[in-house]
Amino acid sequence: MIVLFGKIKDYKKIKNKVEVEFENKKVNIVVINDYIVNVFVPMKDANYNSYAIENDNVNKMKFEVINKEKKIIVKTEQISAHIYDNCKIDFYNKNNQIICKDYRGKREPFIRRTDNAIVEEEGQKLTKDIKKQPVEIMKENFGDEKFYGLGDKTGHLNKKNYRYEMWNTDDPTPHVESFETLYKTIPFLITLRDQFSYGLFFDNTYRSFFDMGKENTNYFYYGAEGGDINYYFIYGPEVKNVIKNYNKLTGTTPLPQLWTLGHQQSRFSYDSEKRVREIAEKFREKEIPCDAIHLDIDYMDGYRIFTWDKKKFPNLKKLVNELHEDGFKVVTIIDPGIKKDSGYKIFNDCLENGYYITDKDGIPYVNEVWPGECIYPDFTNSECRNWWGNNHNNLINLGIDGIWNDMNEPASFNGPLPDNVKFKNGGKPILHKEAHNIYGHLMSKSTYKGLKAITGKRPFVITRACYAGSQKYSTVWTGDNQSLWEHLRMSLPMLMNLGISGFSFSGTDIGGFGFDTTPELLTRWYQANLFAPLYRNHSSQGTRDQEPWAFDNKTEKIIKKFIDLRYQLIPYIYDLIKESEDSGLPVIRPLFLQYQDDQNTYNLNDQYLVGENILMAPVVSQGEKNKKVYLPDDEWIDYWTGEEYNSKQFIIKNAPIDIVPMYIKKGSIIPNYKKQNFIGENQIDNIILDIYPGNGEYMHYQDDGETFNYKDGEYNLYKFVQKEYLDRFELDLVVEYQKYEKVYKKTTLIFNSLNINKIEVNGKEVEYTFKKNSVFLALNSIKEEKIVFYK
Ligand code: MIG
User: Fold this and answer.
1) Residue 564 is among the residues annotated as catalytic for this protein
2) Mean pLDDT of 749-764
3) One domain, residues 12 and 103
4) The domain that contains 704 carries what CATH number?
5) How far is CA 489 from CA 99, 436, 485, 507, 655, in A?
6) Annotated active-site residue in 170, 203, 401, 409
7) Ligand 1 in contact with 296 (CB < 6 A)?
8) I need a labelling partner for 153 at 20 to 30 A (CA). Which of 86, 169, 269, 774 fits?
9) How far is the CA of 405 from the centre of ligand 1 (A)?
């Protein structure tokens, strides 16, 4: 079906909405704020309820509607949408520059000159072209577009000239550049042009497609197999502003418990109490920090979710208790499939209450997953979601600290779920083809809410499948990567694109999941993902051991060095996640986010910024010992040597296996903790400020790292400001806000300069020491200090 809109006949302004009437169709242009306009054409459901956008974020807005000959202009303070016949819409900024233009021509795909039958007979994979979709939006390419976002799709940072498909898919073969689908649906595209940037959020849960100029370089388009034309145009001009506004729509990543930023160890599977104890003991014996151990599917009784195997784990409660005493948290996996077994309570409950999805005749739909034949809970049903959430009670009573959701694409071993499988969806039934891409989203939402209700703490949920907006409920990992250098390389653009697509809390399986890792690859992975908020080593059944000590002493020592460093820097990562919660900006950032005018950053796949202060350029190739590093427009200090570099240059950094190229922006103040074997090993009463002399400001956040009390104001905020003068540096430590009682008792300043003759604190000269290349100074708790470092 092709919508022929026809000519504009009339329009009506109703609150924030302009209803434009074309000859054949009514279209809603909704002004969300000065930067965001929603284009909604009801094709299926005029009263569409978004799964991604859950807050009622439409405030009353002032905007103009101008009726010109042949067009209607909807104009906010920042942008205007020009609406023409046939529902062609062009967006302009307030300087009247055209930002984004509907393509007026027809689709003209390139031709594949091939005989499909022969290709298939040879066993090669056919790349199928996308046919005309019932929902399709085409935009003109001006030529200067770079495309980012879309979550963790394979390939490079910049998606220009590539095409992807949104259909949550579990495909265990190695994820390579030619993959068009993966586990997640995050239909948010960021376009960066030479002078400005904008985002397009296509809120449609059907199988959908994004083509960034692959089939024809004159246009890009997105489309779906069903649903409505429903997209949000989000203007920058800064990419940061696009991201912030996208997060306003879909929600931000909430502040997690502090321990979740620690190192985590997983394996498919640690499948006995004995093995779990061995692993835990090894970490403590070797003093390699670790905060959590994950139990993969084999902890369960015949893969029945919410149960455990009494033979392999005769006293799980005791085990968890002991692990807690030793400073470990325990995370268990939960899959959606419920084993068809009349002696199994969860199955019976699900059946009795009708909490399952059905085939077209209303009979429970059955497919196979790990437990064998299974029924699938209907997460579109809120009662089912509550029930599901409550089921975690058992695990929480055992002391389980976090839940890892897997297989929720949903995956199935016996062919895909048919399109016509039915979901209740709160009285407005939908079919699988509409529900598929939100299955993981709703599962993790239900898990989050359940955990929150049961524990009162900030829930820790990890999910593999998700939809836009799942960041409110769950962290994500990128699924089954393999121990391949190619996958280490790809982990960086994946983390960066996830970050700018709303998912600040993410990670990849460190060391690689499938295939056997090598000492060098494992080490480089720990380095490259050093700041991935989810810092978890995981590997598949049948692969070689992959724990930090799985190889030789040298490898173990180097890995330990980096895990130690991670723990030192956790307060910096925590500050950044707080920023994610407040503004939506991610922890891991592509360089163009900060240096948008710098062309050298547009295709930088193997470097990232952590917030604004740390630049990482990990080695991601085997045997590489010299890394080309781009330093953008600021002055940078080599973290390892203290050498200073001027901006806007490429340098070669010598990076033997025990070094990851890491740079700190001049003027930075990086909060550190003392080394711990796990979060909370010692009461954290000492904050260490690692200071890189220059001009700069930093806000540091502190709270209990566990509860929601911070929402009631129980937190502390510190502001650190440093200024450089000819003869001195001045550092002001200020308590901006203080309602959390466990304030730091000690403050250690590391001033990274040797050029100091005298230090004064609040006008009084003080003693200090030199260590390596820095000055060390110990203070008590921060009240309001002015520290002057005389050159
Ligand atoms: O079919 O639970 O991505 O992390 O170890 C494989 C077993 C099922 C896939 C997950 C992986 C996990 C594995 N799971």
Assistant:
1) no
2) 94
3) yes
4) 2.60.40.1180
5) 33, 30, 6, 14, 16
6) 409
7) yes
8) 269
9) 10
Q: How many angstroms from the chain centroid is the CA of residue 581?
A: 12
Q: Which amino acid is at 670?
A: I
Q: Is residue 545 part of a domain?
A: yes
Quick one: what percent of the chain has pLDDT higher than 70?
A: 99
Q: What is the CATH classification number for the domain harbouring 579?
A: 3.20.20.80
Distances (CA, A) of 348 to 344, 355, 377: 6, 10, 12
118: confidence class by pLDDT, cuts 50, 70, 90: confident
In a domain? residue 373: no
Same domain, 155 and 17: yes
Q: Which atom of ligand 1 is nearest to the CA of 297?
A: 2
Domain stop point among 636, 665, 694: 665
Ligand 1 center–CA 305 separation, angstroms: 14
| Same-domain status, 119 and 242 | yes
Q: Which residue range forms the structural domain that includes residue 777?
A: 683-790
Comparing CA positions, the residue from 603, 625, 607 lying closest to residue 616 is 607
Residue 417 forms part of a structural domain: yes
Q: Identify the active-site residue in 170, 335, 378, 406.
A: 406
Residues 6+ apart with CB under 8 A from 494: 152, 153, 154, 478, 508
Total count of domains within the chain? 4
Q: How confident is the model at residue 123 (pLDDT cuts 50, 70, 90)?
A: confident
Question: What's the CA gap between 763 and 753, in Å, rounded?
Answer: 21
Catalytic residue, candidates 228, 480, 547, 556: 480
Residue pLDDT, tens place only, 378-392:
999 999 999 999 999
Both 291 and 326 in one domain: the answer is yes
Which atom of ligand 1 lies nearest, measured to the CA of 296?
2
| Same domain assignment for residues 547 and 452 | yes
Evaluate whether residue 232 is within a structural domain: yes
**Same-domain check for residues 170 and 270:** no
pLDDT band per the 50, 70, 90 thresholds, residue 1: very low
Averaged pLDDT, 109-134: 86
409 is catalytic: yes
pLDDT at 260: 98
Catalytic (active site) residue 480: yes
Of 524, 556, 583, the last residue of a domain is: 583
Q: How far apart are CA 367 and CA 372, in angstroms?
A: 8
CATH (domain of 111): 2.60.40.1760
The residues, any chain, with a CB within 8 Å of residue 86's CB and separated by 6 or more, are 4, 5, 6, 7, 22
Amino acid (one-letter) located at 693: P
Confidence of residue 61 (pLDDT cuts 50, 70, 90): confident
The per-residue pLDDT of the chain, averaged, comes to: 96
CA distances from 513 to 79, 196, 482, 546, 662 (A): 46, 39, 5, 9, 26
* Residue 479 in contact with ligand 1 by CB distance below 6 A: yes
Same-domain status, 644 and 751: no
Query: Above 70 in pLDDT, residue 58?
Result: no
CB 406 less than 6 A from any atom of ligand 1: yes
